[in-house]
Write a structure and sequence with these properties.
By secondary structure, the protein is an all-alpha fold. It has helices at 16-36, 41-52, 62-68, 70-86, 90-95, 97-126, 140-150, 156-165, 172-204, 210-239, 245-265, 270-284, 287-314, 321-349, 354-363, 369-382, 387-418. It has one domain (73-307, 321-418): Na+/H+ antiporter like fold, CATH 1.20.1530. It has 17 helices and no strands. The relative contact order is 0.17.
């Protein structure tokens, strides 16, 4: 039977720099193609990865994607986490804190619960019986836990893009929405830290010790936050002596990578450490310098994100499409249910406006790129013990992200229109 992967075999004699260059060129080319069809850049990046990855043309081999290029994943996730922290402006959060806190916490908890329950129930039904020989608790349950935790995150990029495109009024709906998306990813990282400890314990067959399940991730989270603050303090001292923007980029990138490297070395969360660093910079460093720091980082984010998502797309295995497609649908539906009813419940408790009650759940539908980063992190661990289920998990999350990026902008636009906080774009 003809297979696309046999159609092209990447020459091993090519220098590695050629492939790095191709990652940049192809990701940006496909981003422009996505723009032509009025789709987000991430769709182009992921499609480029699928086409040129091991499943189709095999320009980038499986070894290259999973091992040789893994450092790019670490670098990109550190930058994403720093940017997330940089959006956590404490003065804005304080203004609408009651609505923001209740809606954020409950939509996150409901999303986790819905995805976890649906995944735990349906996974055994869409996977062959042979995959469950090690027992339900050692196979399906840990995968469902990780799927639930990474489904919490909401993508800020498409939401902010639509707010800018339609010149959204800064009414209560928009302000609460911005407040939620700034702390939503942080909550996802914390949930993920706890879920990973429990999942590892289940896979190893150990009796779940609640003290360890709570204490270990709590200590890890605390150490990560302390590391971010310490690097932030050092960075604040350094920035006193540097004003020109042309050297600021190197200093910020250096601080982000040092933070990520130290966290990985000491086996704590590099994501949380860099998120805390970003939060420190935006809130406790001189306003002008903080703005400059994120501005110079913005100038390189797009190409780095491009190659990161191309690599993510290359990990999609076409042979998994039938089963991963079912799981993708389950993830999309259950996450939507959790986000919508969690938001509604939070809005009712906080006595928020009718618009927030009815439409905030729709506006929180976009899936964050950090979800792909987290599932790739989990794959590194689970692929050793649960290779089939781990591949299925990665493919389903990437598939859900693709679908979500195509349809979620319409949900966001509709919710803002119903809240009467966007203006039509004048031609």
């Amino acid at each position: 039977m003809f297979e696309f992967s046999n159609f092209y075999t990447a020459p091993e004699s090519f220098h590695f720099l050629i492939y790095i260059g191709l990652l940049f060129l192809l990701s940006q080319a496909f981003a422009r193609i996505a723009n032509f069809f009025k789709s987000p850049h991430i769709v182009g990046y992921l499609l480029a990865g699928i086409i040129f990855g091991p499943s189709v043309l095999n320009l980038f081999s499986e070894k290259m994607i999973t091992k040789d290029l893994s450092i790019i994943t670490d670098i990109t996730l550190s930058i994403i986490a720093f940017s997330i922290g940089g959006s956590l402006k404490l003065d804005i959060l304080n203004k609408f804190k009651k609505s923001i806190l209740w809606v954020t916490i409950l939509q996150a908890f409901f999303a986790f619960l819905a995805v976890f329950i649906f995944s735990a129930f349906f996974l055994p039904k869409i996977v062959n019986h042979s995959e469950s020989l090690n027992g339900y608790e050692k196979t399906f349950l840990p995968i469902a836990l990780i799927l639930g935790s990474i489904s919490l995150a909401t993508a800020p990029a498409p939401i902010i893009s639509i707010l800018r495109e339609y010149k959204a009024k800064k009414g209560s709906f928009t302000n609460v929405l911005l407040g939620i998306i700034t702390i939503d990813d942080a909550i996802a990282l914390i949930f993920y830290s706890f879920a990973m400890v429990i999942a590892k314990s289940l896979i190893q067959g150990d009796l779940l010790d609640l003290k360890i399940a709570i204490l270990e991730p709590s200590v890890s989270i605390l150490l990560a936050l302390v590391l971010g603050i310490l690097v932030g303090i050092v960075l604040k001292l350094i920035l006193k002596f540097f004003n020109p923007k042309d050297i600021l980029l190197g200093i910020i990138i250096g601080a982000v990578l040092v933070t990520g490297g130290l966290a990985i070395t000491f086996k704590i969360s590099a994501l949380l450490a860099n998120m805390m660093l970003g939060l420190f910079v935006v809130n406790f460093i001189e306003h002008k310098k903080a703005d400059d720091a994120f501005e110079v980082l913005d100038s390189i984010e797009e190409p780095i994100f491009g190659i990161f998502f191309l690599i993510a797309g290359a990990q999609l295995n076409i042979s998994f499409l039938s089963k991963a497609g079912i799981l993708t649908f389950i993830l999309l539906v259950s996450r939507f249910i959790g986000k919508y009813f969690g938001s509604y419940t939070g809005a009712v408790i906080s006595h928020s406006s009718k618009a927030i009650k009815r439409y905030m759940g729709l506006a929180l539908f976009p899936t964050a790129g950090v979800s792909i980063g987290l599932v790739l992190q989990a794959d590194v661990i689970f692929s050793k013990t649960l290779p089939f289920l781990s591949d299925l998990m990665v493919n389903a999350v990437i598939g859900a992200t693709l679908v979500n990026e195509l349809i979620s902008p319409y949900f966001v636009r509709f919710s803002l229109k119903q809240a009467k906080e966007i203006q039509p774009v004048k031609n």
